[in-house]
Amino acid sequence: MSLSSNEEGGAASSPKPSDSYVQSFARGLDVLRSFGADAPTQTLSECAERVGMTRAGVRRILLTLQTLGYVDQEGRDFRLTPKVLELGFAYLSAQPWWGLAQPLLEELTQELKESSSAAVLDGDDIVYVLRVPANKIMAINLGVGTRLPAYCTSMGRVLLAALPEDERERRVAAMTLEARTPRTIVNHEELLQALGQVRRQGWAMINEELEMGLISLAVPIRDRSGKVVAAINVSSQPHRQTVAGMQQHFLPRLQAVAERISALMPR
């Protein structure tokens, strides 16, 4: 039985159902994405409010997800189950070269005594696909699957800089640039200039723009055709490394590891 848009709610700008767009499936994904660090558990009403749908529509989706094992219910509260991890790790298992890259990042972290990571671009965010911590305390808890805004992260700037110029300008123009720290670039033109510099030099350095006390250096990962498909970084803190010191001592090592990982990319 088909469901009317009034019954299901949702944003008026959402694509209309068609042979190439299944609206009910899209809304199910919206419900899944509504859970997170700021909402690990939700009541039916809270979830409906977060996704902009009716209680009746959200109830059907949550009960379906519960039947499939992706959601659990305790009293009035719903929460995700570990089975949801299958969805994310299916992506990683479909990219087996990440498993080959991990030992290289572990070697880099051990050598530099600093955390290293790998990420891909997803919309306006980066998503971590590998993370090798150096047991340093950070305010931001990072792990595989963590999303951060691309505009104020070193890996994000590497990935944005690699986009074709027209697409890069279009994306930046549509971004909401918020000051994560007093040093965050929040001017669109200034950000485009910074991305242009990253593209020319082939690496990006972020100095306390994402988080005070955090410096990050990133370089691209390329496939066999030379296309940038991911980025890796190493991060430190001002009391351990200066920006100049990271560029002098860390950049050559990071670039060498990036070349080795790029060579692992499938043909």
Write the layout of secondary structure elements.
Layout: H1 5-8, H2 23-33, E1 41-42, H3 44-51, H4 55-68, E2 71-74, E3 77-80, H5 85-93, H6 97-112, E4 116-122, E5 125-132, E6 147-149, H7 154-161, H8 165-174, H9 188-201, E7 204-207, E8 215-222, E9 228-236, H10 243-262
Antiparallel strand pairs: 1-3, 2-3, 4-5, 4-9, 5-6, 7-8, 8-9
Give the proportion of residues in helices: 40-55%
Main sheet record:
6 strands, antiparallel
Alpha-beta content class = alpha+beta
CA-CA gap between termini? 46 Å
Strand content: 15-25%
Output the strand order for the largest sheet.
6-5-4-9-8-7
Rg (CA only): 21 Å
SSE order in H/E notation?
A: HHEHHEEHHEEEHHHEEEH
The shape, in one word, is globular
Oligomer kind = single chain
Put simply, the count of helices is 10
How many runs of DSSP E, i.e. beta strands? Answer: 9
> Average pLDDT, to the nearest integer?
87
Low-confidence stretches: 1-13
What does this structure look like?
By secondary structure, the chain is an alpha+beta fold. The protein contains ten helices and nine strands. A six-stranded antiparallel beta sheet has the order 6-5-4-9-8-7, sandwiched between helices. α3 crosses α4, α6 packs antiparallel against α10 and α7 packs across α9. The longest helix is centred in the last third of the chain and has 20 residues. It is globular. The N terminus is likely disordered.
